[in-house]
Amino acid sequence: MAARTDALTSRRGLTYRRAGSGTPLVLVHGYLGGSRQWQAEIARFSKRFDVIAPDLPGFAGAAHLPAADRIGTFAEAIIDLMDDLGLGRILLLGHSMGGMIVQELAARHPQRIERLVLYGTGPLGLMPDRFEPIETSRERIRAEGVGHTVRRIGATWFREGEHAKGFEVVSSLGAQASEAAALAGLDAMAHWDGRQQMQRLTMPTLILWGDGDRSYRWPQIETLWKGLPNAALAVIPGTAHAVHLEKPGLFHAMLEDFLMADQAAMA
Predict the structure, then answer these.
(1) Angle (deg, nearest 10), helices 146-155 and 134-144
(2) Torsions phi, psi of 157, nearest 5?
(3) Which of 44, 101, 132, 263 is the most exposed, having the fewest neighbouring CB atoms within 10 Å of its CB?
């Protein structure tokens, strides 16, 4: 398949970006994110994998689709896309809320996941010790609008706040969401608890976390690390919630080492 990173549309109307060939690698963005945040990862990993990065319903390029207010609904959208594209077993990465979505997907269809990456995420949607309670975020979206809120929240995802490289990409993607989608995403997280299904995630799993993450604190990461049957942990120093934008070289090296482990063992 020729490399391309322009937006495509599935039969069900979900937008996504795709490039490369080989084993499918599906990248699922988080709250107020979008597929365009993965441009560097698509460029890097499409040399070895068939990289597919969807926009979640209600966000970025898929802002025209109905907002989802449950993590399971988001997971179903990704499963539908996998079926539309004829994907069998895949490598799967989820960031932030996307990490909750891929945990849900992997618990429902563990036989379809070859390797799993849980990046800047946790097993509990209410996110204890988050920089602010979800209810506060909900109130401020209603009072201040999505555009202002995504800049305010997005600044917490970087060590350098609004001055960080990558911040404008994050803020522009988030601003594409409607107020309904932004509120529904918060509801989806608030109602989700994946702790009881962690034992079903038996596939090799990498937990990747920035040590300054203010959304998912260490207790959430530790719960994943100790609770998943086959988990490894990578902590990236000097980063926050957007490691792939703050230290892309280190992020790519950690990810490549994990994803290529089976090929290295056979060499």
Answers:
(1) 140
(2) -85, -5
(3) 263
Query: 135 by DSSP, 3-state: which?
Result: helix
Q: How far apart are CA 1 and CA 61, in angstroms?
A: 22
Mean pLDDT of the 113-142 span:
96
Q: What is the set of domains in the chain, with CATH numbers?
A: 8-266 (3.40.50.1820)
Place of tokens 């290529």: 260
What is the tens place of the pLDDT at every residue in 28-70? 999 999 999 999 999 999 999 999 999 999 999 999 999 899 9
Counted residue by residue, the chain has a size of 267
Say how far apart CA 164 and CA 174 lie, in whole Å.
16
For 140, other C-beta atoms within 10 Å of its C-beta total 15
| Cα angle 101, 149, 188; round to 5 | 25
Euclidean distance between the first and final Cα of the chain, in Å?
Answer: 25
Task: Mark residue 196 as left, alpha or beta (left: phi above 0; alpha: psi -120 to 50; beta: remaining).
Answer: alpha
Q: 């997280």: which residue's tokens?
A: 189
Give kind and range of the element (H or E) at residue 113: strand 113-119
Angle between helices 179-190 and 97-108 (to 10 degrees): 60
pTM: predicted TM-score of the whole model, two decimal places: 0.95
